[in-house]
Amino acid sequence: MSDATTNASRSGQEEPLKNVLVTGGAGYIGSHVVYTLLKTRQYKVISIDNHHNSLPASLARVSELALEEHKASLGPDTQLSQRDIDSTIIDAYDCDLTNHSAVREIFGKYYSSENRKGGIWGVVHIAAYKAVGESTSIPLTYYQNNVSATISLLSIMLEFDCTRLVYSSSATVYGTPPEVPIPERTRREADSPYGRTKVMCEMVVEDLCESSGNAVADGSTKTPFQAISLRYFNPAGAHPSGKIGEDPRGRPGNLLPLLAHMAVGRVQDPVLKVFGNDYPTVDGTCVRDYLHVLDLAGGHVLALQALQEGSTLNEKVFASVRAGKGKFKAYNLGKGKGMSVLQIVEAMRKATGFEYQTEVVGRRRGDVPALIADPSLARTELGFDAPHDLETMCRDLWNWQKGNPAGYVILQVKF
Predict the structure, then answer these.
(1) Is residue 12 within 8 Å of 270, Cβ to Cβ?
(2) For the NAD-dependent epimerase/dehydratase domain, which residue ranges apply (predicted)?
(3) What domains can you pick out in the chain, each with its CATH number?
(4) pTM for the structure as a whole
(5) Catalytic residue of the set 43, 129, 143, 194
(6) How many CA atoms lie within 13 A of 130 on its CB side?
(7) Residue of 151, 97, 153, 99 lying closest to 123 (CA atoms)
(8) CB-count exposure of residue 265 (10 Å: 0-12, 13-18, 19+)
(9) Which run of H or E residues covers position 236?
(10) Nearest 10 degrees: CA dihedral of 111, 116, 119, 124?
(11) pLDDT tens digit sequence for 323-371
């Protein structure tokens, strides 16, 4: 924070905090996005989460962490203003996005019909079911939870004059890509029900942006709906303090948290099954693009800032959007560099000191040799960067896991 910004905050000259709603705010990605939003001191964060795969304790830690860091940045002799305090407090609601009336009630708490500038300024929509394998077994559940809930959310946003959306999408929208690294112009051809829910939601949001833009062109005085879809690859790591991190329920389905659980003893199986070692990659195992979860969270904040009408960033992001197409853009968030399964295992061995055993088995259906982002568009237009390397991701993940071997459950114990 600059001296000018700090002085403005101390003298009360800064603008009021913008209300930003984060769906899925208590989850792994959501909690780090909430933390990064709080760190800007620009937003009042509201979280909606049904805790299907998360615990409320994560946001309690985020709030504590934000307050500690803000106090440290101001110095011991500086008294926090009410705005400072408000910027670290999260309004957290235990609510399911499929419950239209409950979500609508939350929006209504922040909205005044007399002051249309109030209410929720923007939404970061992260909440979704996200297991590819599970989605093939219960596709209707995925379409209802991911697609229907998104449509419900969008209709409520329009009702309450909330016209800024950052949508949490996925690299799964590309399916098996025809070229690697994968640019945003790649056709959307998902291979799973989960991936197709992301494609469908993107299309719904894009259609909404286009219809809103057409209405403005026809003389509507309403603010046009704007949205940025973030297609990210494989988030990893945790906050370096070890206070927040990934806490999946049951056996982790992703490689890095599985390795962390093996090292800490939560997964007793001593052998990691490696699905194929005959791919055309550096060591024959599948290659994926991993990025630190805080770099990913920073991308969400940049996207939200890009939705500020009249800003230089807003004009830059939507400059290439053709007239009549609406203000919708999609960006890849990744490092643009792939790491193989065996490289990940070796990095985690160095971070944890745990001697992993591996067993090569047959290829897994649906796996492709390499999935690597081309993040150049996000770098050029959003100013996105992912500087954390694999060593840092593994170190931060292990710092979280060894300090919280049972995840957030320890905060649920009452004495």
Answers:
(1) no
(2) 20-310
(3) 18-403 (3.40.50.720)
(4) 0.93
(5) 194
(6) 22
(7) 153
(8) exposed
(9) strand 234-236
(10) 140
(11) 767 899 999 999 999 999 999 999 999 999 999 999 999 988 778 899 9
